[in-house]
Write a structure and sequence with these properties.
mainly alpha, 66% helix, globular, 7 helices
């Protein structure tokens, strides 16, 4: 598996002959796109409806759980980045901390999955395309191995799924737990207002 991961990395990583506009595009996707998404979420929260703020809150919780999951995995599996092993070309300045799993991929897939679970298919589709582009850019720029972004994406998807389940399906869901009617459910024949 590691040989396949290394071979895929070498096939995707930008080399000396790669056109500069592709490297610039990958840098924009890797660095600027996440900042624009964060600004768009803040604007959406400020101008959106109560339902939109609830969607953003669920996405932020999923991203927080993802952040914890990535750090736990990095602590448990301190895998080096390609440049630390002398592989490929690193086109983006990066520290020497563990690269497995990719935080960028994890966060972007957590957001996309949260939007999908909140039944926002158009925004989820755009977010999944952005997440795939971010995952590609991290390998293209030599910052991660393909397995790093695959594990990051999986971590984000699982964290968003767990968040969605906790919010809507858990036996002690927050909605039911703090509902005024949770201890006195209405009878079927009771009139609703």
């Amino acid at each position: 598996m590691l040989t396949l991961d290394q071979s895929l990395f070498e096939a995707i990583n930008a080399g000396p002959a790669t056109p500069l506009f592709l490297i610039a595009l990958a840098r924009w996707v890797s660095v600027t796109l996440p900042l624009l998404v964060g600004a768009a979420l803040a604007l959406w929260c400020a101008l959106g409806t109560r339902e939109h703020r609830w969607v953003i809150a669920k996405a932020l919780v999923a991203m927080a759980i993802t952040w914890v999951g990535v750090h736990l995995l990095r602590w448990g599996v301190p895998a080096p980045r390609p440049a630390q092993l002398g592989l490929g070309i690193q086109w983006l300045e990066h520290g020497a901390r563990a690269g497995f799993p990719s935080m960028h991929a994890a966060q972007s897939f957590a957001l996309a999955t949260s939007l999908a679970l909140c039944r926002m298919p158009r925004w989820a589709g755009v977010a999944f395309l952005g997440a795939a582009a971010i995952a590609w850019s991290r390998v293209f720029l030599g910052v991660h191995f393909p397995l790093d972004v695959l594990a990051g994406g999986t971590t984000g998807i699982l964290a968003a799924g767990a968040t969605g389940w906790l919010v809507t399906q858990a036996p002690l869901s927050w909605q039911r737990r703090f509902s005024a009617y949770s201890s006195h459910p209405a009878r079927p024949w009771a009139r609703r207002r």
